[in-house]
Specification:
The chain has 220 residues and is of the alpha/beta class. The chain has helices at 19-32, 39-45, 50-58, 64-82, 92-101, 114-124, 147-156, 170-179; strands spanning 6-9, 106-109, 132-134, 163-167, 182-186, 201-205.
């Protein structure tokens, strides 16, 4: 489709309802290390690239080697407990298929690392939908920095104003807003956007049932 907008998707919480399993894997890892932390506090700290998150959870004085080892342990635990539950949100595959048929270029822009991206996309047979993949290894700053979305837009050869971001988190919403992009809020994690961010939110939906790609054409 000529002049089609670019669709940019977060992964965890947006394509798959995985955030509770990330929280659970952190609970288990922290408990193993004798650290007690509430679910709410884990969720509050669990934003950004993985090395940042590890230090938020376990201390800024960790060495780089310790951070890498802990991060790998946490993500392996996540894949182990989420694997049996790996599935797309309702309506997601049909939405992506319809977008592809309309010629809408799509990117994945996530704070997940390559291993988790492969685990999710290849486990669900979804890699072919995305022209561009931007992950943790491709950015210097995690969300709410707009870097991941701006890189995805560049890869799609679209200006920020021509892109629509599909997101589930406050940090992702802030990142998209800072990038100058409109947002479709898939509220697996949020009930409502942050105060002051509603201007960036084109639509809030629980999943992809009842929404179609063509309703966003002309709204980028």
């Amino acid at each position: 489709m000529k002049n089609a907008p670019g669709f940019i998707f977060d992964m965890d919480g947006t394509l798959v309802d995985s955030m509770p399993f990330h929280t659970r894997s952190w609970q288990l890892l922290l408990a193993e290390r004798g650290v007690q932390m509430s679910v709410g506090e884990i969720e509050r700290r669990n934003h950004g690239i993985l090395p940042e998150v590890v230090r938020k959870m376990l201390g800024a004085n960790l060495s780089d080697a310790e951070v890498t080892a802990i991060g790998e342990q946490k993500e392996a635990l996540f894949r182990q407990i989420f694997g049996p539950h790996l599935q797309l949100l309702p309506g997601c595959r049909a939405f992506l298929e319809a977008a592809g048929q309309l010629g809408i270029p799509m990117a994945l822009a996530t704070m997940a690392n390559q291993v988790n991206v492969g685990f999710t996309l290849d486990g669900l047979g979804m890699r072919g939908y995305f022209k561009i993949l931007v992950g943790e290894e491709d950015v210097q700053q995690g969300k709410p920095s707009p870097e991941v979305f701006l890189k995805a837009a560049q890869g799609l050869q679209r200006s920020p104003e021509e892109c629509i971001v599909f997101e589930d988190s406050h940090s992702g919403l802030q990142a998209a807003q800072r990038a100058g992009m409109k947002v479709v809020l898939i509220n697996t994690s949020l009930e409502s956007p942050l105060p002051g961010s509603s201007a960036a939110v084109h639509l809030c939906a629980k999943n992809y049932l009842g929404i179609t790609p063509d309703q966003f054409i002309g709204n980028s």
